[in-house]
Design a protein that fits this description.
The chain is an alpha/beta fold. The protein contains 13 helices and seven strands. The protein has three domains: about 5-115, Nucleotidyltransferase, domain 5 (2-Layer Sandwich), CATH 3.30.420.40; about 130-230; about 235-360, no CATH class. A hairpin with a 4-residue loop joins strand 2 (about 15-25) and strand 3 (about 30-35).
Length: about 375
């Protein structure tokens, strides 16, 4: 008798993970839960190997966060692990009016894996990478500091509006918050004539300015570490016009191992750079209208947009590309999407070359005793 094939779906959490098996005909087989511990992961692997199904693919949510230990273990065991976006299972549950439980989520993940064999590979690396982990730690810390700085500026803006009119009249007439905070230090106002609430607000703004300066200095200190970390990873993305050190760090952290993408088209679909057809009436002809793919990685897509805007402003090849597309009666939005699609190809090719170069260097390094 020929073996029966199927897929698995895993819904990971902080302490537990639930797995559901579905055969190729869509019939649910088994469901089980395991602890996210070394022993629990071994039980999970035993559960898969003892199953009567031949598991072709395993879908998992949050493969680079809560599901990372499971992704590494399953990949090391030789399974084809794919990433399932949470919004896909949420849409399936809402459409079918199903309950929200770990068992339902695991089965929905398995069915999404079965319905789409071209899901992106799970995780960002098939094996731990110390240099990439260090860059990720710096990136996460910097992102946290930037968010704290934005929050301080946003709250300070609301407090500035509540100051007395005679104080606000002495501040610069600008929409930027930081120059107003800096000018507040130099203003000579008869403070005793002000209300106690206004004095408290001024003290709060002065303290906020100190916090903003401290956060800005920490961000600058972290930025100084980024070039050295990029050099260790052999990154050459900064050679592309419009890609700086921070932008290159964002791409490396979000993309991870570029070799998990086999083609430019697969990478473009993953990051949302490949436009979706939204056309009608063409029959067997080519689709005439497209729109933005909002299902891809929005952070990488945002980086592509920033690079596009920079190149259109100061890079002659990009200007010529846009002019050529617009002269061919292509709408400006469509021309922008076409250029971003081209940028996605350039970036992933750079990363493939960097990965090959780094692998060659590591192979050629003499072994240490």
């Amino acid at each position: 008798m020929e073996p029966r094939h199927g897929v698995a779906g895993i819904d990971p959490h902080k302490h537990t993970a639930t797995i559901s098996l579905v055969d190729h005909r869509g019939e649910a087989w088994k469901t089980a839960s395991f602890a996210v511990t070394p022993d629990g992961i071994n039980e999970l692997l035993g559960f898969l190997s003892d199953s009567e199904l031949v598991i072709d693919q395993i879908g998992i949510e949050g493969s680079s966060s809560l599901g990372l230990p499971l992704t590494l273990a399953l990949s090391a065991a030789g399974y084809d692990v794919r990433e399932v976006q949470p919004n896909r299972t949420a849409e399936r549950r809402r459409r079918r009016r199903r309950a929200k439980t770990d068992i339902e989520d695991a089965e929905a993940i398995a069915r999404e894996t079965l319905s789409d064999p071209h899901l992106p590979p799970a995780g960002k690396h098939s094996a731990p990478d110390a240099a990439w982990d260090e860059l990720t730690a710096v990136h996460d810390w910097r992102s946290s500091l930037v968010l704290q700085r934005v929050r301080q500026l946003t709250e300070a803006e609301a407090v500035l509006v509540a100051l007395p009119m005679d104080v606000r009249a002495q501040l610069p007439s600008t929409s930027r918050v930081l120059p107003q905070l800096e000018a507040l230090e130099d203003i000579t106002v008869q403070l005793p004539e002000m209300s106690s609430a206004s004095l408290i607000r001024i003290d709060r703004l002065v303290a906020a300015l100190d916090d903003i300066r401290r956060l800005t200095q920490r961000i600058k200190d972290l930025d100084k570490q980024v070039p050295a970390l990029l050099a260790v990873l052999g990154c050459t993305l900064t050679e592309i016009c419009g890609v700086g050190t921070v932008t290159a760090m964002e791409l490396l952290v979000e993309i991870g191992d570029p070799c998990r993408f086999l083609t430019e088209a697969q990478f473009a679909r993953w990051c949302g750079a490949a436009p979706l057809a939204v056309s009608s009436g063409e029959g067997h002809g080519r689709a005439r209208r497209h729109r933005l793919d909002r299902g891809g990685n929005r952070k990488v897509n945002s980086v592509l947009h920033i690079v596009h805007v920079t190149q259109v402003r100061c890079h002659d090849p990009a200007r010529s590309f846009m002019a050529r597309k617009i002269s061919a009666n292509m709408p400006k939005r469509s021309a922008r999407r076409a250029h971003k699609r081209q940028l996605a190809n350039v970036i992933i090719r750079h990363m493939w070359k960097d990965a090959d170069r780094r692998g060659t260097q590591q192979t050629s390094m003499p072994a240490t005793a």
